[in-house]
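[SOLVED] Predicted holo structure with copper (II) ion

Edit: marking solved, answer below. Original request kept for reference. I posted the sequence and ligand SMILES and asked for the 3D complex as C-alpha cells.
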Amino acid sequence: MHSMWLRGLLNKRAAARACAISLLAATGVAAITVAAWADFPRPWELGMQAPATPVKDRLSAFHDELLIIITLITIFVLGLLLYVIVRFHHQRNPVPTRTSHNTVIEMLWTVVPVLILVIIAIPSFKLMYYMDRVPDPDMTIKVTGHQWYWSYEYPDQGGLAFDSNLIPDADLKPGQKRLLDVDNPLVVPVDTTIRVLITGTDVIHSWFMPSFGVQEYAIVGRLNESWMKIEHDGVYYGQCNQICGINHAFMPIKVQAVSKDDFQHWLVDAKKKFAHDDKGVDAVRVAAASGSPDTALPAPAGN
Ligand SMILES: [Cu+2]
C-alpha cells in the first residue's frame, strides 16, 4: 500500500518535472523573443545587445541558429526520456531485457553528434575568420588598458590622445549612467571601417564592446587587432571584462558614434582640448617639438 503511494508520487513528480522543463523552455523562448534590444546593459536583461556592426549582426544570427539547433536537441532528448519513463516503467515492463550492445545504435549516437558539430563548425570558422581580418581599414584607433582606465589614440590624426576615466557616483549628472559613463568617450565616425589596436601597460585587461562584437585582450608588449564598422550613430557602452585588479569594475568604455561631418568638427575641438594633455605621449611630443611654452618637457636639443 505504502509502496503504491510512493510510486504514484514518483510518477506525479516525474510528470511535474517534465511539465516544469517544458514550461521553462517555453518561457525562455518567449523571453528571448520579447527581450528589448539595447546598446547598454539594463537590469534583468535577457538576450544580447542590439547589433551595431556587421560582425555583431553575424554573431547574433549565429547565436540564433545555435539556439534552434540546441532547442531541437533538447526537445529530442526530453522526448526520449519521457518515452523511456512511460514505456519501460517497471509496471509495464517487469522483466527488463538483458541487451547490452547494439552496434547500429552505438554508431548512430557517435556519428550523428559528430555531424551536428561539423554543421556548427563550418559557419563558426567562417565567422571567426571574418571577425579576425580587418577589411581595408579607413582609420586606426589605438586602445591602451591601464589600472584602471582606458586611453585612446588616433594615430591618423597627428597622435591625438587622451585618457578616459569613470565618472564617480558623486559627480554623476542627470541622465548619466552609473559605472558606465566616462569623462572622455571614444568618438568615432559611423560607416567607417576602423582598425582597433589594443594593448596594455600593466596587467591584462580586455576591451569589450558587446554591441560591436569586439572583445580583445589588452596585453603588455602585444598589439592585438580587431575592427568595427558602426552602422548607426549613438552612444554605446562596454566594460573591461578581464579581472585586472581592485578597480576592475570601474574602467567602463563609452563610445560615441557620430556622423562623418560631426567627427571632423569634434576632431578640431579635441585637438585643441587634448593638445597639452601630458598623459598623451604623442601629444606631448608634438607640443614639445613645436616649442610650446606650457609643456613641462624641455624642447629637444638643437631646436
Ligand atoms: Cu581592466
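OP edit: The first helix runs from residue 2 to 34. Thanks to everyone who chimed in.
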